[in-house]
Design goal:
This protein is α+β, with helices and mostly antiparallel strands. The chain is about 30% helix and about 20% strand. Strands 1-3-2 form a three-stranded antiparallel sheet. Strand 2 (about 35) and strand 3 form a beta hairpin.
Length: about 60
């Protein structure tokens, strides 16, 4: 299985590497593993949904 770092995944997902690390530490990225200070994320992993961005009906 191929892995990408949080920095590489942040470019793919379009969010900061800090946010990717936070998502990994919260357990919201399936298959993510921490090696030392670096998060390794499976290449095929999809970006988790953001609960902070809730759209109201009619908008």
């Amino acid at each position: 299985m191929d892995y990408l770092t949080s920095m590489e995944m942040s470019k793919i997902w379009g969010i900061s590497s800090r946010r990717v690390s936070l998502l990994c530490s919260e357990g919201r990225v399936p298959g993510a593993e921490k090696k030392g200070k670096t998060w390794l994320i499976p290449k095929e992993t999809k970006k988790p949904k953001e609960p902070r961005r809730i759209q109201k009906q009619g908008e």
